[in-house]
Amino acid sequence: MQPSDPAAAEAGPAFRAGYFLRGVAGAFSVPGVVLMATFVGFGGLLHDVGFPIGAGLLSTLLIWALPAQVILVGGIASGAALPAIAIAVCLSGVRLMPMVVALMPLMRGRRPSLWLELIAAHFVAVTMWVEGFRLLPKVRQEGRPSYAIGLGAGLTAASMIATGAGFYLTSLLPGPLAVALLLLTPISFTILLVRNARERVDWLAIGFGAALSPLVANTPGGLDLFWSGVGGGTLAFFIARIWKADRA
Amino acid sequence: MTPFSNEMTAILVVIVIGFLPNEIWRVLGVLLGRGLDENSAWMQWVRAVATALLAAVVARLLLIPSGALVALPFLLRAGAVGAGVAGFLLVRRSVLAGVLTAEAVLIAGAWWLGVVN
Hints:
The structure holds 2 protein chains of 2 kinds.
Chain A: H1 6-10, H2 17-26, H3 30-49, H4 53-62, H5 66-77, H6 82-93, H7 96-107, H8 114-122, H9 126-135, H10 144-169, H11 175-196, H12 200-215, H13 224-247
Helix pairs in contact in A: 2-10, 3-5, 3-10, 3-11, 4-10, 5-6, 7-9, 8-10, 12-13
Chain B: H1 7-32, H2 41-63, H3 74-90, H4 95-113
């Protein structure tokens, strides 16, 4: 995502290289390091299931959402049907839409540019969402789209390096460290779930999703994630509603 | 062993099965923008499904692990994640503290059981 990128060049003065570079520098922070660590874990997972590294790196660049990437790679490794994986990936990505909607006002410049907004929105994921709310208010409005894209590009580049490092390190590491690498994905997802859980419906969804998972593990057609996600989520949604209705 | 001996097939799968169904939500977020009511029942259901899905992904990674994790008992894998959550909640909701606690418990447990060396 260089300043010479055609989409950015078309937008002309809406894109500012200075702000872009400041955004890239903003990627080097504690959340950025934690993110890199989880992508090292993803690289280890790629190596473990025999997924080609080129396609794995591309998934970090294009999908840029670790849950979707793990669903994709894990689903393929377990022999799930491709349409079922696509549905599970699509469902896991839903949470990105409210994030984009909420963060977009901070990523818009003075003159609207759809291309810059789409590029900036591509980088929206959990870390970008947290760091965007922390950093963007301090940036002058005309520089915000460029700063946001720089921040996203910096985080993505660091994560791609981490993905590659994890892929090649996992076979070289001694036993305990290789195991530690593979635990990074489940532990960071779990903490993310706990951190984002605010209402009862969130805790119910976590509980049902996890509890249903072993029950549907051998569902024909590789639809187990679909059933535990849609089934557990729907169950949590209705129980939370009934609960609320009883209280009211 | 390898699901994809052909790198091109894997790249195509990443784009069609991974990138497109995921990216559509970001594009919709830009296009729909402010017209969206985050608190509508529909959005609440969608968020509950996304949360349950992520929890199911974690459960599957712990229940049916791959590679080196297979050598460890399920209780140690789940215990390490539980310890990580406790570390996160106790140390100022720090993600780093949670991750480090979980890793410490896992490595100590593996070493104590003598499972990995």
